[in-house]
Amino acid sequence: MDGGRDGPHSGPMETFETLVRAEFAPKTTYLNSATLGLLPARTVEALGTAVAAAAAGQPTDMFADVEAARASFARLMKVPDRRVAAGASVAVYTGLIAAALPEGAEVLTVEGDFSSLVNPFHVRRDLKVRSAPLERVAEAVRPGTALVAVSAAQSADGRVADLPAIRAAAREHGARVYVDASQAAGWLDLDANAYDYVSAVAFKWLLCPRGVAFLVVPDDLGGLDPLFAGWVAGERPWDSCYGPVEELAHSARRFDESPALFCYAGARRSLELVEEIGVSAVRAHDLALADRFRAGLRSLGHEPVRAPGSPIVAVPGLGARQGELSAKGIEVSQRAGNLRAAFHLYNTPADVDRLLDALAG
Fold first, then answer.
1. pTM for this one?
2. Which whole number is the average pLDDT over 43-52?
3. Which of 3.10.20.340, 3.40.640.10, 3.20.20.100, 3.30.70.890 would CATH assign to domain 54-276?
């Protein structure tokens, strides 16, 4: 392929390019952010500092890192930080939401959605769980539906949910909406105010270490019970270490999991970088590369799964080539039989063309 074609940044993108060059220097053609985002240099440095300080018996204030990360994620979601819980797992937060539903409640999910979003509802045998194709979720909401649970972007193939339509249908029938933004937060402009609950792991498009996840809840805390509340969920955590917690946090912090502190020491810096660059700039960059790849695939006779507006591109029939590509230094993934490529801020047009050249060969 012609690596000299115009890339997504033919205009002045000096700040974007300068920040990315300073933070990332992958040794491979890394096109697998839907599995795991690369860590920025500032994050790696912060992790090293925190580990070295702990080893020396002079640990840094990593609880301050948790609060900074919480505030940063809140800004990205356009909500006050009092509505954000900090934890480590979407599945845990899905379980919390599932536990709050009354017996017999109907939950509408998407066919083939990620198990962390779906399975906790199935574990509760007294719930009625239905699924519908992604494109038909809004029309599948009906009287009696209590909750619609949907990923903003599908993990398997990158298809993006019509969240406004789903929200409108849910409101018409009195249902709540729970959005898993794990494959969207960082590149998709989300306003969490539009939904009842929004969760996300942060080790993909938000570039954080594994062990960081968030949950956004309504101002009234969404009817959730803090079933796993420990001392960190107290209004005054250091006064809540022994015996029952006398006063739970008045904010979403009552839903905090005991944090993986070293992970948050790094997450603070990763989220800071995403804010500095800006989600809109990341989105424009990522989608331009994905569109370049889709066009190249069609020129080779391959038709990707239709997923407009997504930086995740899934190609049916090519999943078995993942190992061969990895051996050539091109990192993609195999999901649901598809070859899945995911384009993020550290990728370039040359990365796209190298993958297309390898597929052509």
1. 0.94
2. 98
3. 3.40.640.10
